[in-house]
Amino acid sequence: MKRILWAAVLAGLVLPAQARLPVMIVAPPVVAPPPALMPGPAKTRQATVLRARPQHQSTVEGPVPAGAGLKLQVRQSNRDGAWWYTEYQHYSGWVQESALSQ
């Protein structure tokens, strides 16, 4: 019986119990989560400012008080975080996403 089994192993028909088969693990694709906010109406959680560009050191265009209603238009992310382009009263500019809620 052992000779028949060994002949089958050599012929590639049967694998011995000690044989290890290579295993390929396929991970699901990484998908970025959707932004917390979407274009449209939003409010400020705290007093903030509109900036000329989506950067902390950018020129301040105007103040925005806590609870102010805004219409979010365009989102941009960079090393300074996520920013939304919006308008408030007669000011327009970029506000940091962390200061907003929908």
Summarize, please.
This protein has 102 residues and is mostly beta strands.
Extract low-pLDDT stretches: none
Number of helices: 1
Helix content: under 10%
Secondary-structure element order, as H and E?
A: HEEEEEEEE
**How many extended strands?**
8
**Biggest sheet character:** 3 strands, antiparallel
Shape descriptor reads elongated
Beta percentage is: 35-45%
Keywords: Signal
Organism: Solimonas fluminis
Protein name: SH3b domain-containing protein
Signal peptide: 1-19
Please tell me about this protein's structure.
This is SH3b domain-containing protein. It comes from Solimonas fluminis. Keywords: Signal. Residues 1-19 form the signal peptide. With 102 residues, this protein is mainly beta. It has a domain at 36-102: SH3 type barrels (Roll). Helices cover 9% and strands 38% of the residues. The chain is built from 1 helix and 8 strands. It has one helix at residues 2-10, and strands at 40-44, 48-51, 60-64, 69-72, 74-78, 81-88, 91-96, 100-101. A 3-stranded antiparallel β-sheet has the order 4-1-8, with no helix packed on it. A 3-stranded antiparallel β-sheet has the order 5-6-7, with no helix packed on it. A hairpin with an 8-residue loop joins strand 2 (48-51) and strand 3. The longest helix has 9 residues, at 2-10. The model has no long low-confidence stretch (mean pLDDT 82).
